[in-house]
Amino acid sequence: MSFDNLNDKQQEAVRQLDGPLLILAGAGSGKTSTMTHRIAHMIEEGIPAWNILAVTFTNKAAAEMRERVESLIGDTQDMWILTFHAMCLRMLHIYADRIGYDSNFVIYDTSDQKTLVKNIEKEQGISDREFKPQYILSVISRCKEKEMGPEEYRRSALEGPREKAVYAVYKEYESRLRENNAMDFDDLLLNCLRLLESETDVLEKYQNRFRFIMVDEYQDTNHIQYRLISLLAAKHHNLCVVGDDDQCIYQWRGADISNILDFEKDFPDAKVIKLEQNYRSVGNILAAAHSVIRHNTSRKQKELWTTREDGEKINYYRADNDREEADYVARQIGYMNRSGRSLNDFAILYRTNAQSRLFEEALSRHGIPYQVLSGMRYYDRKEIKDIMAYMRLIVNPADDLSLTRVINEPKRGVGPKSLDKLAAFARVRGQSIFEALIDPDGEMLDTLPGRSYDKVKEMVTVMKECREQRSDMSVSDIYDALLVRTGYLKSLEDEKSVEAESRIENLMEFKTVIAEYEKSAEDPTVEEFMAQLTLAAEVDNMDDSQTQVTMMTMHSAKGLEFPVVFIPGLEDGLFPGSRAFDDDDQMEEERRLCYVGMTRAKELLFLTSAEVRTRYGRTDYTRESQFLREVDKKLLTGSAVYQRRGQRSSLGVSSGSRDGFAKEPAYKPFDALKYAKQQTRKAAAGGDTDLNQGDRVKHGKFGEGLVISVTDSIVTVAFDTAGIKKLAKGIAPLKKL
Ligand code: ATP
Ligand code: MG
């Protein structure tokens, strides 16, 4: 194979197969392309495909890499090209029993985790308002990334009420996962590491197998991922890592930038190749991205160059408000589309998922098809979660969480009380609820009242049958059986609502997912399907079938490229987020994210902001983003096609009248989220209680008035305009004036 289309440095990296190799280079310099060519070269050199392991971060990146390798060499069957999580899953499926799990363990995704934490909080009398499940889960995840169990957490943490709550939940959470033969996403990595560390023969097997290992986006590996790779590569040392310290955007999730900066320390004989030519973006885009990232102090100095033309300047538009901003973007896209650009060329990359709604609305108004890439969207739908819970139970009867989810879905008259009873009964017998239900002795069913007995029995019978016969049934047969015979589908049909209609459509669409799986798998089983699905549901899955605009967060855009990119919401407090103003590390991470976002663009880059924005229900004036101020002003233009006479930008882009920025005074943007939380708490706390006859008061809805009488629980107020009202004391939002 000739690699003439690669530059000298790239070719050098492709040919350097033995020993540790670090490819350190900026965005769009062909790191990923070099990696795929390197794999092709290996095959050409006669290295067996099954000796090769290539790891990336998202399903999309893995699929793309496999495709690219296939286009170079054809078949890639025996090659492991996958995400970290998928790699661990594969190993654990074979060896779970070595570390005390059943091989048919299930994976809990984000919303399962939340449910579990909520349940635990309820049982332990911990308020899920005060200690949000999401918060607790983020602490647990941080702990797991550092291999810190509940006890270690307790020893290391402070002893405030918050830490006590986290500890209590964490401890119970871990034992519940165990009981349910389940792992969360962090466990996949952690348990795989434990497996390789404790079982020498397993480690040796994989070390011998994977003689050549490659990791893309290495800058975003966390501690556990780093250890996994080090272990696997320890024997042959043929490890090639590829990355860009300027693109490390997952520190908040434990990614450790030092993994890339220290690679040369870990492997003193490592060869380092730097790629400096950017092939992706036109000159102005590259220059603009640099003018931002160079403000970061902790980075390896490097500058990319391109032989491409300068291209258009970067478009900047300051809209009146956030709705108008979205409308502007939609109009620009519509205009360029009519002038001949495919809708697939466009990406809108925002900082937070919440920003997508306005763009979805604006694009719909303009009749422009789009897709939102947020991974959870489809799989987070209730009906899909329900049916997945049914399927999981078939695989793993120990999964009480799934049983709890579906036992009364559709309604079978099993309320929380009956469920508690069932749970207690099962506990006494040392079984999970579902195990107890399908137990041939059947006593458990008898504890149910008549009206639910029949329905639950019917459900249990179907599930039991599916479970027993699962190796003889196809995954789609199992799916159909469950959907129909559990009564789930019928109950939706009976509802006869538009919403139920669309749920049914989604359930039908799910059959496509199953069909695709059955086509691609060697030996399709419901176990494998469920495991794959749980992984797939968490991350991006791009649908390329129709031409449409793509929207996603800048985080999920890593490694991707688009001819035209819009980055909206360039306002202090949104991007960079308000917390960055207290914390230099955070500011640098946000800046790297900005660099990632800008370098996704090949030909055109649009930046926008809104003068007035509504967030968390509150409308405020905004200030243009620090990052905008950092972009070399020569590279900006305000002359976008639909730009009005926009004089509002303090950047002076449109008018061209200002020629520099005065040093800005220290500035702290308004923290809208914090404010919204305070308001919520205030509202939840109700009104004043020490009210007396004759007090002037103000009510949120009725306005001002005079208290005419007060009892233990009732306040009677004569409102100036709303008349006399009797209100609940302490609950009604009454404030003394
Ligand atoms: P990122 O940092 O964003 O992940 P990357 O370094 O992995 O980027 P690639 O995605 O591999 O970069 O390549 C960027 C673009 O440049 C792709 O469109 C690729 O096809 C093209 N490219 C890479 N190398 C060359 C080359 N030698 N000649 C022409 N085009 C190239
Ligand atoms: Mg890449």
UniProtKB/TrEMBL annotation:
<feature type="binding site">
    <location>
        <begin position="25"/>
        <end position="32"/>
    </location>
    <ligand>
        <name>ATP</name>
    </ligand>
</feature>
<dbReference type="GO" id="GO:0005829">
    <property type="term" value="C:cytosol"/>
</dbReference>
<keyword id="KW-0413">Isomerase</keyword>
<dbReference type="GO" id="GO:0000725">
    <property type="term" value="P:recombinational repair"/>
</dbReference>
<dbReference type="GO" id="GO:0016887">
    <property type="term" value="F:ATP hydrolysis activity"/>
</dbReference>
<dbReference type="GO" id="GO:0003677">
    <property type="term" value="F:DNA binding"/>
</dbReference>
<dbReference type="GO" id="GO:0033202">
    <property type="term" value="C:DNA helicase complex"/>
</dbReference>
<protein>
    <recommendedName>
        <fullName>DNA 3'-5' helicase</fullName>
        <ecNumber>5.6.2.4</ecNumber>
    </recommendedName>
</protein>
<keyword id="KW-0067">ATP-binding</keyword>
<feature type="domain" description="UvrD-like helicase C-terminal">
    <location>
        <begin position="283"/>
        <end position="559"/>
    </location>
</feature>
<dbReference type="GO" id="GO:0005524">
    <property type="term" value="F:ATP binding"/>
</dbReference>
<keyword id="KW-0347">Helicase</keyword>
<dbReference type="Pfam" id="PF00580">
    <property type="entry name" value="UvrD-helicase"/>
</dbReference>
<feature type="domain" description="UvrD-like helicase ATP-binding">
    <location>
        <begin position="4"/>
        <end position="282"/>
    </location>
</feature>
<dbReference type="InterPro" id="IPR014017">
    <property type="entry name" value="DNA_helicase_UvrD-like_C"/>
</dbReference>
<keyword id="KW-0547">Nucleotide-binding</keyword>
<keyword id="KW-0238">DNA-binding</keyword>
<keyword id="KW-0378">Hydrolase</keyword>
<dbReference type="InterPro" id="IPR000212">
    <property type="entry name" value="DNA_helicase_UvrD/REP"/>
</dbReference>
<dbReference type="Pfam" id="PF13361">
    <property type="entry name" value="UvrD_C"/>
</dbReference>
<dbReference type="GO" id="GO:0043138">
    <property type="term" value="F:3'-5' DNA helicase activity"/>
</dbReference>
<dbReference type="InterPro" id="IPR013986">
    <property type="entry name" value="DExx_box_DNA_helicase_dom_sf"/>
</dbReference>
<dbReference type="InterPro" id="IPR014016">
    <property type="entry name" value="UvrD-like_ATP-bd"/>
</dbReference>
<dbReference type="Pfam" id="PF21196">
    <property type="entry name" value="PcrA_UvrD_tudor"/>
</dbReference>
<comment type="similarity">
    <text>Belongs to the helicase family. UvrD subfamily.</text>
</comment>
<dbReference type="InterPro" id="IPR027417">
    <property type="entry name" value="P-loop_NTPase"/>
</dbReference>
